[in-house]
What does this fold into?
Amino acid sequence: MQAWRVDRLGEPRSVLELVDVEEPVAGPGQIVVDVLAAPANFPDVLLCRGEYQVKPPLPFTPGVELCGRVVALGEGVDTVGIGERVIGSPNLPLGAFAERTVMQASNAFPAPAALADAEASALFIGYQTGWFALHRRTTLRAGETLLVHAAAGGVGSAAVQLGKAAGATVIGVVGGAQKAEYCRNLGADLVIDRHVDDFVPIVKEFTGGRGVDVVYDPVGGEAYEKSTKCIAFEGRILVIGFAGGTIPRPGLNHALIKNYSIIGLHWGLYQHHDAAAIRLCHDELTALAESGAIAPLIGERLPFAQVPEGLGRLGDGSTVGRVVFEP
It folds into this structure.
C-alpha cells in the first residue's frame, strides 16, 4: 500500500514522500481501517517540522485524525465490527495519510450517520477541543458573547459552531476576505478581518463597552495581548495554543485588576487521564451533528496526491476553512 512518509524533518512540501509500505497489522486492542478521509491539521505541519510535543521516530506518516472503515480486528476487540465507519486518531508513526492505518479500538468512535466521510473526519480533534474548552474548562452560557481567534481554522471554526449551538453571540477574528466569508457561513454574528481592522475597538463598540465573556485563543502572541483589552469583568480567556508562534507572558496583575480568568486547555491529556470524558464528548457532538446544530464546513477537498501541498499551504496560513484529503 502507499503512504506519505517523512524521512527527515522540515517543511511538508520538502520532506513528504509517497512510498510503498507494508500493510498494517492489528495488534491486541487495535483495529485496521481503510482511510476514507483525513483532514489537514496544524499539528501535522508541526510533526513534519519536528516542532510538535509528540515526536515519533523517523520515518513516520503524519495525519492525526480520520474517518475510516474497519477492515481488521486485533485480539480482544469487541467494541467495533468489520465494515463499521469510525472516526478518531490513528497510531503514530503510521498516521492517517496512508491508504490504511492502525487505531486503538478505544480511540475509535462511530462516525455520525448524518455526516459524509469528509465532514465526519473533521469532527474529532477540533470539535472535541472546542467542546472541552467551552463546556468543561469553562461553561459558556446562552446569551454570553464569545470571541474566537483564527475563526476560519480547524479549532476556531469548530468553536464558532459550538458557541452558536450553546446560544452565545459569536465574534470571529480572521485574516483575509475569503476567511471572513467562510466564517460568516459558519454562523458568526460578527466577523472582523484583522488584516483590515483592529478588533479591540470594534469588539468594545459591539458589546456596548462591556467586552466579551469568553475568548477562545489558539493563536497567542498579539491576539492574546489585545484580548485582555476587551475582556469583560469576570470574563474567561481560554488558552488553546500558539499558532502565531509567540507564547504570551500574561500580566497577572492585569487579570487581578479586571477580575478575569486565564484557563489553559491541553485536550490530548484527557485521552490519558479521563477517556470516559472523551467518549461522553463524542456522544454530545454526535447528537449536535444529528440535530443539524453543527457540521464541519469543508473549505477544500483535495486528492491524496496533494497532501504535501495542502499541508504546506496550511503551514503558510493560506488555506481557507478545513482542508480534507480523500484517497
